[in-house]
Amino acid sequence: MEAKKIKLTAVEDRPHITYEALSVLHKYDVGLIWMEVYAFVAYIKLMPVEDEIWESIKKELNDLSGWASLEEIELFPFEEKDTEMKNVLDVIPHGVTLLSRTGDIKYFNNYADDKIFNTKGKDITGININKYLDCNKLLTSLKNNKKKKAIVNEKMTIGRQLYEVKLQSIINEENVLSSYLLSFYDVDTDVYDRYDNPITFNDIIAESNKMLEAIERGKLYSASDSPVLITGESGTGKELFARAIHNESKRKHKPFVAINCAAIPDQLLESELFGYEGGTFTGGRKEGKAGIFEIANGGTIFLDEIGDMASHLQAKLLRVLQEKKVRRVGSPNEINVDVRLISATNQNIDQMVKNKEFRLELLFRINIFNINIPPLRERKEDLPILYEHYASIHSRRYHKEIIGIDKEAMRKLINYNWPGNVREFQNVLERAVALSTTKEIMPKDIFLNYDIIPEENSDGKTLKEYLELLEKKKIVECLRQSKSIREAAKNLEVTHTLLINRMKKYKIEMKNISNY
Length: 516
Description:
The chain is an alpha/beta fold. 38% of the residues lie in helices and 19% in strands.
C-alpha cells in the first residue's frame, strides 16, 4: 500500500466545507500527512488506506454537498513543477544554484553538487551560500546595480578549477525580487590540472580468479595504445578499470576525461564531444568551446555507456577515430588530436549490431581489446574482502568501531543475488554501518534492496495471492526488526490499527514471529 494523494474540487467556496471532508477522514481513523487548501480546491496526502475502507471514504466524500469531484492524483502541482524544474536544470552543462533573497541555498543542480559543493549526499538547502563561497561582493554589486535584470560576474577558483561566476536577480511579474540565480562556468586553464585521476589497479579490490584475470588483462592492455572496450553490468566498476588502465599507461601524465553518453541529450553530447564555434548556439559561449577530444589531447577519453550513443554521433566518432582529426560543430576547420579511447557498455553490443542499433565498423574500431568484468554474483568469494574494505571506510565516516560481522549477516550477504553489483554492495554496507548499534554488523542491520520477493513458488497464483505473499513477507520482516507492533507500524508508515488488522488477516502473532 502507498500513501494516497487526492484532489477535491468544490462547486462553492463556503465556510466549513473542508472541515466536513476532514471529519470523514477522522471517522475512519485515516492519518493525514499533508494538506493545502485554495478557493474551490483542496489537495490532501493520506496515510495508506485499505481498499475496502478507501471505497467507503470515497463514497462519503462524494456524497458531501458542495464538493464537485474527488480525484486520485500521482503528483501535486508543486511536485510536478519541482520535478520539471530539477530535470531541466540537471541537464544544463554548467553549475546552477538558486538562492533566496537572504542568500540561502534553495536548489542546486547535479553539476554544482559534484563540482562546486561536493556534498557527498548531505542536504545543504537552507544554508547560506557564504558558508561555502564568498559571494558578498557579487550580492553587493547586484544590489547596487539600478538595472532590474542586471547580471554581475567575477572569476573564482573553487578546488583546482577556475570558474566565471555569474549572479542575476529573478523578478516576478510585479517586479518584486523573488530569488537569485548563481551560475558557474568553468574556464579552460591548464587542462590537465582539471582532471584528477588517482585510481590504480591497486584500488580494485578482488581475490577471485575471474577478477584477478580481468586485472591482469587490464595491466597488459595498458602497455598498448589501442582502444579498449570494457563490458559488464551496471555497478561492476568499469570506470575504475578505465582509470587504472590510463594510470598504468604512458599517457598517465596527460588528461583522463570521462563522459557518460547515456546521461547527456544527443544535441548536447555532440558539442561536449567535439566542441562548437562561437555563435553556433543561442546561449552558447561567444568564444566557442573545446570538446573533450581537444581537452584530452595526449591523454585518454573514457566514453561510458557508448551503446546509448545516437547513430549520427557514432558515424562522426568513427570518422574522428579513423582520421585523428576533430571538427567543432559549426566550424569548417579540422583540428589534429591524439587520444586513446576506452569505451564501456552494460548492453549486449553484439546483439545491438545485429539489430542495427550500433555500427559494426565502429565496434571493430573500439573493440581492439576487450575486458569483461564479471558480476558480483559470479565472484562471491570477493565478498569478505569487499566487506573489510567498505566496512573500514564507512566506520571512519560514521565514527563507529566495527570490528566484525555476524555469521548470519555474512550469510545474508552471500545468499543475495546483487543485481546492482559492487555499487549496490557498497550502499547496503554503508546503511548497515550507519544503523549498527554494536561492534558487529548483525542481520537486522542489513536491508537488501530486493529482499521482499517471496521464496514460495508463485507459479499458478493470482495477482491478488501474489501481492498478499509480498505483503505478509514484508510485515514479518519488519516485525522481526522492531521492538513492538507500534514501532513496526511506524517503520511501515501505516497506522497501528491497520497493522493489527493485517496481522489478524495473515494469522501473524508477535510472540511467534521468529517461526514465520
